[in-house]
Amino acid sequence: MKLIYRQHAVRRMFELGISTADVSSAQVSGRVIEDYPTDTPYLSCLWLGFAGNCPLHLVYADNPAPMVNASSLPSMNPIPPCGWRTATRKNP
Question: Which InterPro entries match (predicted)?
Fold first, then answer.
């Protein structure tokens, strides 16, 4: 399955200095921490992975169409201490 970097993800990568190697590391080391089964146009999930010692949140949206068979990466954010914002927890 291929990974498609959406415009917002590319912009965030540029702003934050995140490389495709960092994303690959986060993919290999991470896991789904929250599913979004009602997202449209595709189901998506929040992924937590690591680029070295730096945790990254990645959002994946799956397009299971036979001719596409790809996941898109619409967004990402570093998590403190590697980032600069205070981490927040979603209310249950």
Answer: DUF4258
